[in-house]
Structure formats: structure tokens, C-alpha cells
Amino acid sequence: MLIVSINKEGSPLVLHRNHISIIHPPDQEPSVRLFFIFEISILVRMIMWLAPMDGITNAAYRIVVKQIFEKYNKEHELWMWTEFMNAEGYVREPQRLVHHIIKTDYEDNTIAQIYGGDHEDLVKTAKDIAEKYPSFSGIELNIGCPSPKVMACGGGAGMMREKEKTLELMKRLRDVCGLLPFSMKTRAGLTEDDKQAQKEFIIASAEFCQTLSIHGRTYKQWHSGDVDWQMIYDIKEAVGDKALVIGNGGVKSYEHALELKHNLDGIMIAQAAIADPWIFVPHEPTPAERRETILFHLKLMIIAFDYYHKNLHFTEKFTQPSYEQWMNEVENFDISRYDVGKSVIEYRKYLFNYVGGLTGSKEFKRIAATIRDYQPLVDAVNEFFATLS
């Protein structure tokens, strides 16, 4: 609530961060005071980011997230990442790894993320993506993944051990990305003692990166413990407009993301977004909406899996799919046309999160865990949600 005094000479109002002041000449008192009590709601537009997650943020799930975002969130902007892709593997056998960067024409504002310890392979991969798949909105280097497998090859959080060499690498990557913006995702440091050096490293990275995504936990913390949001805010203060700064770590809900925004350009959501596409919007789905999304996503995942396996024998580059074609296939879905493969089994990680917390979900998960085919799973989903209506 604000009380504002306005003089009859029409002295101007000045809008500050969280209050309004009136300017009038110092030797002149307002001759008429009009008092108004009112509420002011200032819209803070920000970017919501779906974090890159291996085995999660594929094209099918990104489409689900974007469709829901467009329907329920008109105030903010959505950006997404691919699953992260190993550069060494891509250079040697692109047909085996290109599924990590499959993207339809619907998924604008999507960044391709890569990782690895071999600098030459990272440069080759970034250059190849920029030249062959220019529909991406950028290319990003992962400098924060704490997975032992990723760190074993010198990638992910392992790159924080050699900060100067990593800065030199980022300059090279920025240069080979051509028209695509380059960015990086990292953590608050290796340990608590490394935070100051990591802060300086991140600030220096702004010379080469359009976007700096920062998980506010250290490598040692992994995915638990307190998130150092103040460190992220301080980095944004130091970087200013030189680069976008995105905060990440422990975000529990859409409302929580708004609370954490402060001076940042956006908030990234990772673990809490697994099979919860509604976390980016101010809307709680009904059981009917949840069921509809589950079945739509299942069809889309089967279509995507089948498309990849039917088109992976390429020589120059992979032919990216058409969103319109995929939506037509969803509308006229016929399971007999597709190679289901492991797609139904892979879908369980989404399904179990979709139904988490619902009455009877524990028993449903037990039943669903034994199902390997499409129609039996659809029947089980329908039966489960029938008990909720």
C-alpha cells in the first residue's frame, strides 16, 4: 500500500524499485495535497528455463512443456535445453549420439548443450552443430555436472579444476559458434573454499558467454544442501548487462521461482521439472488434464523414438523432424506403425513422476513397472485415473 501526494502544478511521479516519489521545486510546497491509497502490482518479466537433463529433456518432453507454458503463462518467456551430449562420442560416431540434439521447428529458444574433456572434440562438435543445425538458439558448454562418469573424462564439474584452461576453451568455442550465441552452465565451485575463485571465473566468463547459468551448490554438495543464491545475485551485480545470469538449485514451484528472481534474468528448474511441466506456470492440473498429458506424452515419445531409429543412417547430417508431422501422427495414432522398442519402458521415469502423490499411485506404479507394451499401459493409466474421478 502506498500514500502518494500530488500537487496541482502536476509535479512528476518517479517510479523506483519499490516506491513512488514526487519531484517538485525545493522552494515550493505542494499547494494542494490529494491522498490516494492504492495497490501497485509491477510485472517483472523473466525467463523460465527448463534445465538440461540427460534422458529427460528430449524433444518429446520439451514439446509437452512448451505447449503447457504457452497455454497458461502469458507473462514470462520460456527457454529450454537439449539433453547434454558427449563431444568425444559425437565426433567419433554421430549416428549414435545425435538423438540428444533432435529438435522440431516448434521448439524455438532451445540451446544445444555439450560436454567432454577433450578440447579439440568440443570445438569440432560446437562447430558442427553451428553449421549443420543452425535452428538452435545457442550452444552451451556444461561445466557443472557432478556425475563421476562425466568427470572421469575431464568434463562437467571437472573443468572447474583448471579454470584458466577452461576460459581459453570458452573463447575458442565462442569463436566457432558463428552466429549462434555461446553460453555455459556451472556450479558455485568445487568446494566451499573454491567459491571465491569460482566467482571470479564466472565473472571472467562473461567475456565469452551470452548466458551464464549457475547452480548455487558446489560439486561437493551434489544435489543437496543449501543453495547460495546470494553468490548468484552478486555475480549478476558484477556482470551487469554483459551477460544474462540464470539461477538454479532447489526451486520447488512456480511461485518459488518468482520469489528467487531478485536481480537475475531468469530462473532454471531441473529436478522438480521432471514430469511436472506445470511447474513453469501458475496452474494446477486437474486429474483429467494430468491423464491427457500422460497419454499425449507417451504417444509423442514413441513417435520420437521411432523417428530417430528410422533416420539415423545419415551421412552428412540428421534430418530434423517436423512438428506438424508429429502432431498429425499423434492425432491419428496407430501403434502398429511404430517400432516401440524401449520407449514404453523409458517412459516410466516420466509416468511415475506424473502420478506421484496421487491416491493409489504406489500400487499403480507397481503394476505399471511390469508393463512393456503401449496398449496395456494405456489401459492401466485409464483405469487408475477412473478411480480418481
Description:
With 389 residues, the protein is of the alpha/beta class. 39% of the residues lie in helices and 15% in strands. It folds into three domains: 2-38, no CATH class; 47-280, TIM Barrel; 287-386, no CATH class. The chain is built from 15 helices and 13 strands. It has an eight-stranded parallel barrel with strand order 5-6-8-9-10-11-12-13, surrounded by six helices. Strands 1-4 form a two-stranded antiparallel sheet. A two-stranded antiparallel ribbon has the order 2-3. Strand 2 (13-15) and strand 3 form a beta hairpin. Mean pLDDT is 90; it is low at 1-28 and 30-43.
Write the SSE topology.
Layout: E1 2-6, E2 13-15, E3 20-22, E4 34-38, E5 47-50, H1 59-72, E6 77-81, E7 85-86, H2 87-92, H3 94-97, E8 110-115, H4 119-132, E9 138-143, H5 148-152, H6 163-176, E10 182-187, H7 195-205, E11 211-215, H8 229-239, E12 244-248, H9 254-260, E13 266-269, H10 287-311, H11 323-331, H12 343-346, H13 348-354, H14 361-368, H15 374-386
Parallel strand pairs: 5-6, 5-13, 6-8, 7-8, 8-9, 9-10, 10-11, 11-12, 12-13
Antiparallel strand pairs: 1-4, 2-3
Helix pairs in contact: 1-10, 4-6, 6-7, 10-11, 10-15, 14-15
Task: Briefly characterize the structure.
The chain is α/β, with parallel strands linked by helices. It has 3 domains: 2-38, no CATH class; 47-280, TIM Barrel (Alpha-Beta Barrel); 287-386, no CATH class. It has 15 helices and 13 strands.
